[in-house]
Fold Serine threonine protein phosphatase 5.
Amino acid sequence: MPRIIFKCRYLKNTPKAHLANLVEYVATREGVEKVSDSSHILPATKNQQKLISEILKMLPDTADLFEYEDYLKNPTRENASEFISIALENSLDLIGKKKNFVDYIANRPRVEKLGNHGLFTDEGVPIVLSQVAEEVSNHTGNVWTNIVSLRREDASRLGYDNAKSWQDLIRAQRNVIAENMKIAPENLRWYAAFHNESHHPHIHLIAYSINPKEAYVTKQGIENMRGSLAREIFRQDLMQIYEKQTERRNSLNRQSREAMQDIITQIRSGICENKNIEELIARLAEKLKHTSGKKQYGYLKAPLKEVVNQIVDELAKDERVTELYSSWYEMRNEVLSTYVDKLPPPLPLSQQKEFKSIKNMVIAEALNIGSHHFTFEPDEEQNISIEDDGDIAAATTYFEKSAKLGNVNAQYMLGRIYLESDSEHENVEKALQWLGKAADNGNALAQYAMGKLYLTGNHLEKDAVKAVELLTKSAEQGNQYAQYALGKLYLLGHDVRQDKETALHWLSAAAAQGNIYAKYLLERMDSFKDPSILLAATRLMHHLGNIFREEYQKAFGNPLIQVDRKLRKKLMEKKLAQGHAYNDHAPHQSY
């Protein structure tokens, strides 16, 4: 059962005779009035039970009310009376006239009045009850009558046991409400009143557009409104979910985050061997060669989409991914359960929208294989970053001075800073200038960086000869990543003439330094398969690891690894001393 009830429906002018008869019927029946203190804990009477059955039959959505849940758990006369009263009240909009409904929610018993009545609306808008009643009654479009209800313990604990808190909340949420009701914000009119019920305090919220042609609410819109209200009301509780602030949750949080980080690190740094993926990616690469149009998942025909889905679901079979995905679902559902009636059933990874970007990565990998495009993976430690632009600006100023004096490390680091895409300090022209100078001055990291740019044709015209020249210079200085790149290049034989002897030399050199990808290819030197196909599952697994990391940060508020400002500064100083750029934990590893 969610911790917030949100009912959303609209008034029509169609007579509701059968519901009116129900009101007349129950008006004199036992259960409408509060029972005496001496009998409130006795079992519900037969008349109450009969009346509840009839209410549920004629108003089935009342089964979602907190009061009905309480009645099911403990079917006393008091709980029966509470349910009967609130069920009928929540259905008055369907039973009575619009004008009477406005007056009722404004003046009924236990309404908290902010003046002469209990209605409130946008700040600075005066409310004359009779005018509002006429306005709503004469409105020709749909008038939406929403109910938001909490449990008493939650309302008291979180401060939503008074009209002022609800007034502030709805005023803050009014544009969210307008958006999800498909109403232009300036056209939204709303009025609400807080009813301080003993068991479940709630508000009635009347909303409509001054443009009768507006206002349309979908199921998703209702969920969006409920979710937005719940996130604000239960902000403190959700922070406990996000931060795991209690001792028990802190312990679980540390353990789970460490486990998740271990898994993500394994995924992003290890080898994934999957023959099914190899066969599927090779088939997809071949089919895409003969496919016209845009090569993105949404534009592919159904048979090709199915191949992509099969590849993603093969990735999901990896026990590390299974564990991560299960943990992600568990934490996601803990948040969703605050405001969702029924949790959605688990979906296959290929059908989970939060991970849909992996599908286009699958397609990109297949296209790279089909076109023999040489690929590079991101930095292995991207999860630790320097976020203080002030530090970057200060470092850039310092490196500019040092680079102009001929400091080769400063030249390289300036190039790396300026090459960072989608950043305030990106400057490709300066990046190429300083990386080029550093490479000419013998910096192995700069030679490797420039070699990659020439090989991929990124920011520079593709020049495989120049790329091999630079990579060779870097490799001869012991750069294992350049050694691996050269070994793979000569093994593939696409951008250079195939030379297995030279490939063996460079792959062996890289493997001797612990390069796991070089070791992997050395073990499969005699395989008839393209090394790019052999490593396709590994590349995709690394992409997936990055997506999981981003999803955890997005959904649960905190990165899996957080580095405070002082630690970031120390890391930066250490890297600078070692001749690395501020964001360059290790050179890019190529497959």
User: Anything to note?
Assistant: Residues 247-269 form the longest helix (23 residues). Strands lie at 4-11, 143-150, 188-195, 202-209.
